[in-house]
């Protein structure tokens, strides 16, 4: 069954190319009831980690061509980084069992989608590195080598990102497409974490937090200066929207009830998409 994430990200990888026309935008959610209906569908077919196992984040890059393939590649690696970011937050708090699924997701959910591309792009395979870290966290949670292996995994993912031409990695027109893809996944995950006004899926909440943190603290800053020079209004609007969006995740452990509704998160994600599409439109 196709999941929310597989449908979302496969489409979003193409968004920068066909989404600029405005025909590819996700309709805004009008109210909390609409979001609740979406959540009910998500819980039934999302492939939730805690209920139905793992689900695919995106389609394989082999199914795409040109810039869309490169965007999809960056989205996948960005999702890996998001998982690792929230895992580190949990590890630092001594919550190793809670961190374990997030350490596992990059290799269990995403790696297959980029495995062939790594060879094509001249990037050394790093599946063994990710598996090594996961095995330590899962079977030797107190091993001091976890910190070193975590660092090695981050370096491996960063090296894979660096295989993209620097011109692309510094291009607002390119990176904003990947940002939209990652935020769409965060949006879906956040909605899937909530039912009846409460958080019911901690993993989905944490996934979405990691994805937004990666966009806000790492990916967007990589193009911030250039976008501010080219389109200062768009830069300010996106930064403001990201600062507001992250308030939905006060920490890696979900609060008893959402401080920001799923409808509000959806609206924030759509605001960023609309602003970015206007900014990069020819």
User: Uncertain regions: pLDDT < 50 for 5+ in a row?
Assistant: 1-56
Instruction: Give the terminus-to-terminus CA distance.
Output: 37 Å
The largest sheet, given as strand count, sense and whether it forms a barrel, is: 2 strands, antiparallel
Rg result: 18 Å
| Structural class based on helices, strands and sheet pairing | mainly alpha
Mean pLDDT across every amino acid position:
84
Provide the β-strand percentage band.
Answer: under 5%
- What is the helix fraction of residues, given as a range? over 70%
N to C succession of SSEs: HHHHHHHHHHEEHHHH
Give the number of DSSP strands.
Answer: 2
SS element count, helices: 14
Domain count: 2
Task: Report the principal-axis shape.
Answer: globular
> Order of strands across the biggest sheet?
1-2
Q: What's the topology here?
A:
Layout: H1 4-12, H2 15-18, H3 32-45, H4 49-52, H5 66-92, H6 96-120, H7 127-139, H8 145-162, H9 166-169, H10 172-192, E1 194-195, E2 198-199, H11 202-219, H12 221-230, H13 232-245, H14 262-280
Antiparallel strand pairs: 1-2
